[in-house]
Amino acid sequence: MSNYQFSIAQIQSTLVGARPMRLLQSLSRGLEALSYMSAQPGPVRLTDVAESLGVDKSNAAHLLKTLVAMGYAVQDDSRRYRPSDKLAGRRRIEHTLEEIVAVKEAWRGTLEALVAETGECAHLAVLVGPRVWYIDKVDSPLPLKVDHPIGALAPLHCTALGKAFLTFGAAQMPDDQPAYTPRSLTTRRALLDELGRTQTRGYAIDDEEFAHGVRCVARPIYDADGVMIAAIGVSGPSVRVTDARLRELGSIVSAAGQGGLQKEHTG
Fold first, then answer.
1. Do the beta carbons of residue 76 and residue 168 sit within 8 Å?
2. Which residues pair with 75 in a beta bridge?
3. Rounded distance, CA 217 to CA 203, Å?
4. CB-count burial class (<10 Å; 0-12, 13-18, 19+) for 49
5. Is the pTM of this model over 0.90?
6. DSSP letter string over 121-162?
7. Neighbours of 205 (CB within 10 A)
8. What's the rounded Cα separation, in Å, for the pair 88 and 90?
9. What distance lies between CA 76 and its chain's CA centroid?
10. How far apart are CA 217 and CA 248, in angstroms?
């Protein structure tokens, strides 16, 4: 069972105390949906939530989209839902070194497949406090390429890997958003708007925001409990990564699975 149940019970009691006459139906159903998801061992389907609440799938979808938009739920890459860490009674314990090593080994083949498919550099990173930490990479075979060395740290607000953690993981919004290039998002509003677009498209973008002439895409990797453990991405020089190519790379990275690439990415 998830560790969110106690926090939701607290929210419910607080709201009832504040509004003893009645709760709005939508708010009540939202709490019911969170309670249901919290009691499940892993992420749930839209149909599961609809059946639990006794509503049709359209209403359930609208409710879940609202919870995701408000940061109280997360939709993973399999289109299933779980409560976000925003409702945890305490912050989730960080992944162990053994888990990080395991994900590094498990996704090495995917990094190699991404480079073979795209010709660009592929990276794997984990969250370390307010930054991402590059734990593995496979270089591009081309003479002009991007280099983010293993062991390097990078900010969250202006990297695709960092935005993936801000959108789909447990990373906290940064207190400061310095400009690394003229394209860096330096206001909270601009960053929140971009994270909303990231949530919709399913992958994050760095549009020359961290380094001049470098564009990147990245997507989350989840552990067996549906918690984001790492981010995987592809980076390339902007002379090759045009707007159209950036979208194509986003589709390819989105289709990347453990051990290789799925065939559906060609759309």
1. yes
2. 81
3. 7
4. buried
5. no
6. EEEEEEEETTEEEEEEEE--SSSS-----TT-EEESTTSHHH
7. 22
8. 5
9. 8
10. 10
In this structure, are residues 180 and 158 in contact, taking their beta carbons and an 8 Å threshold?
A: yes
Pull the structure tokens for residue 239: 């002379």
Contacts of 105 (CB under 8 A, 6+ apart): none
Instruction: Say whether 26 sits in a helix, a strand or coil.
Output: helix
Q: Residue 77: what residue type?
A: D
The amino acid at 205: I
CA distance 85 to 37: 13
Tell the residue number behind the tokens 């695709």, with chain if given. Answer: 160
Looking at residue 92, the DSSP 8-state letter turns out to be P
Question: What is the rounded CA–CA span in Å between residue 126 and residue 148?
Answer: 14
CATH of domain 5-87: 1.10.10.10
- Per-residue pLDDT tens over the stretch 239-257: 999 999 999 999 999 988 7
Using an 8 Å Cβ cutoff, are 74 and 81 in contact? Answer: yes
Poorest-confidence range of 12-26, 173-187, 200-214? 12-26
Q: Is the pLDDT of residue 9 over 70?
A: no
Q: What is the mean pLDDT of residues 35-47?
A: 83
Amino acid present at 23: L
Q: Token pair 């589709």 is at which residue?
A: 251
Q: How far apart are CA 63 and CA 70, in angstroms?
A: 11
Q: Which amino acid type is present at position 133?
A: W
CATH architecture, range 97-266: 2-Layer Sandwich (3.30)
- How would you class 212 by CB atoms within 10 Å of its CB: exposed for 0-12, middle for 13-18, buried for 19 or more? exposed
Domain residue spans in the chain?
A: 5-87, 97-266
Do residues 222 and 99 lie in contact, with contact meaning Cβ atoms separated by under 8 Å? no
